[in-house]
């Protein structure tokens, strides 16, 4: 009986810490993966990637022609701009899981997330009734059974204006403060 072919991974990440972590991870599966490690200063950039199954590299160095031809996979999305913003990622995951149902692997491993638009303080109550009934129902549960939620405006960078809440009152307070802050800076 012939042994299965080991897959080939090309690893080349500029960050030495990440590069080392990747090498250690692939080493645990050495019977399945042959690993080629290239430094970020290699002049051959993408010279002869024939036989490479996975290119784990910086975005700018991915051989997109091979990826598009389905000869290889990469550690990046081809159109990364739609996936790097949390709001876009949430939108795309919600769209995909609504098609595949709540039993899909992705739905089971991605936290329930809601994307909504709020432009004026007067819209909070309507939002709670129409689009976020899960938040409105928080107050009906005993405190020890409430889920903790995160409110993150998509127009801010990093962790600015992130709030954690477990009640409708806290959601109202934080969302109103965010909208008022946005309106004063427009």
Largest sheet: 4 strands, parallel
The residue-averaged pLDDT reads 79
- Helical/strand content category: alpha/beta
Shape designation: elongated
Number of strands: 6
Radius of gyration: 23 Å
Number of domains: 2
- C-alpha termini separation: 69 Å
Helix content: 25-40%
- The secondary-structure element order is EHEEHEHHHHEEH
As a percent range, the share of strand residues is: 5-15%
Uncertain runs are none
Q: Main sheet: which strands, in order across?
A: 2-1-3-4
Number of H- or I-type helical stretches: 7
Would you kindly provide a brief summary of this structure?
This protein has 186 residues and is of the alpha/beta class. Helix content is 35%, strand content 12%. The protein folds into 2 domains: 72 residues; 99 residues, no CATH class.
């Amino acid at each position: 009986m012939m042994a299965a072919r080991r897959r080939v991974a090309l690893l080349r990440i500029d960050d030495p810490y990440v590069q080392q972590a990747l090498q250690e991870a692939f080493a645990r599966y050495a019977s399945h993966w042959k690993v080629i490690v290239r430094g970020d200063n290699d002049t051959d950039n993408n010279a002869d990637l024939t036989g490479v199954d996975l290119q784990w590299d910086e975005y700018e160095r991915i051989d997109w022609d091979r990826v598009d031809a389905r000869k290889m996979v990469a550690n990046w999305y081809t159109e990364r701009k739609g996936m790097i913003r949390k709001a876009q990622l949430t939108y795309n995951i919600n769209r995909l899981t609504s098609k595949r149902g709540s039993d899909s692997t992705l739905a089971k491993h991605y936290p329930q997330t809601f994307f909504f638009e709020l432009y004026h303080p007067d819209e909070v109550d309507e939002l709670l009734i129409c689009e976020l009934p899960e938040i409105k129902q928080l107050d009906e549960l005993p405190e020890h059974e409430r889920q903790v939620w995160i409110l993150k405006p998509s127009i801010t960078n990093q962790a600015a204006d992130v709030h954690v809440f477990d009640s409708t009152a806290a959601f109202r307070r934080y969302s109103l403060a965010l909208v008022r802050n946005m309106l004063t800076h427009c």
